[in-house]
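Workshop exercise sheet. Pairs work together: one partner reads the sequence aloud, the other fills in the structure field after running the prediction. Swap roles for the next sheet.
Pair: D.N. / O.F.
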Amino acid sequence: MIPRYTRPAMGRLWEPENRFQKWLDVELAVCEAWAELGEIPGEALEVIREKARFDVARIDEIERTVKHDVIAFLTSVAEFIGPESRFVHKALTSSDVVDTALSLLMREAADLVIADIEALMEVLKGHAFRYRNAVCMGRSHGVHAEPTTFGLKFALWYEDARRNLARMRRSREVINIGKISGAVGTFSNMPPVLEEMVCRRLGLAPEPVATQVIQRDRHAEYMTALALVAASVEKIAVELRHLQRTEVLEAEEPFTAGQKGSSAMPHKRNPVGSENLSGLARVVRSNALAALEDIALWHERDISHSSVERVIIPDSTILVDYMLHRLTGMLRDLHVYPGRMMANMDRSHGLYNSQRVMLALVGKGLSREEAYALVQRNAMESWRQDVGFLGLLIKDSDVRKHLSEEELRELFELTYYLRHVDYIYGRVFGEGKA
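Structure field:
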């Protein structure tokens, strides 16, 4: 049974209460640094630490008048602190606080996504070994190609997830940046050491050179990493949708007690989870494009990026968190039908052995073109007559001039196609290579 999405942590992370708390964390870190530099009296800092808080409803009320969220926030904080609030926001511009706090939020969101990917990888690895030797038909263009194993699909997705994990970890570091350098990033009213002190307190690295904002290629890289995670989720979802088709039915999403697939047709068991994931991936990808559009700002800053980011960053992190959670649940309880896999292999009459036969003929001295023509002639006849490919080859005198019946039957041995599976597993999971 797929567990319900009961992970409110990501959504809660982006609630106004937490967002303003991060702003306050930055402001307090700045006050502490100023105090350490002797610019704020120790007694004032103690009052600020003790009394600093905010009221979300009050911030909203003030903002309706001042039309500026940071000023509304600072006004609310000042109402709690009293006269010592004059030391709060000393020499800062709004983006010093907002951008640095956003980095803190994005870092926390990245940690949640990273944990989600790790949980998915655990399920993928489990299925890779569970179905390591479950033979199924490999398809190219949706048409039977050559045999593979069902476990190799999961090994492939595991490797995809590992790359996504590396991307998310890398993008976490790219966005783990603070900026406390004033109106246009020149430290006009504070010493550069202040930024270093604040960032150290917050576990951030200082932006080496800034304008009024942290540069948005960082955010775009982060959003692109999320888009790639979503694309990998969709990649799996599309495969599951194909595997659940009635004509294939080699695997199927969990279908829980009481679930209904159609308002009109009681027999339906539709891949609705995979379809949902495909749709949500489109949203995350489009958000990454919006993040790329945010990179180019007027001069040292305009505000065109701000309204975009208030939508795309919370939405994409929440969506990817949900997508990973839902996919992990679906795969954990996936219905797998190895018997159907073998039955589907038989539907193409052994035609997947065509390359082996062609190469064997080439090995007997025929040109590739001659061998291809001989094999294709029998393959097409197999399709037309709906009969076994091996039998036609055995009856073909032109083929038998070069290959005996025993040799032909040996070419149809299924184990030949699986002899390097262990080697691939060794490369992916670090086992000894066969």
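Discussion prompt: The mean pLDDT is 95. What would you look at next?
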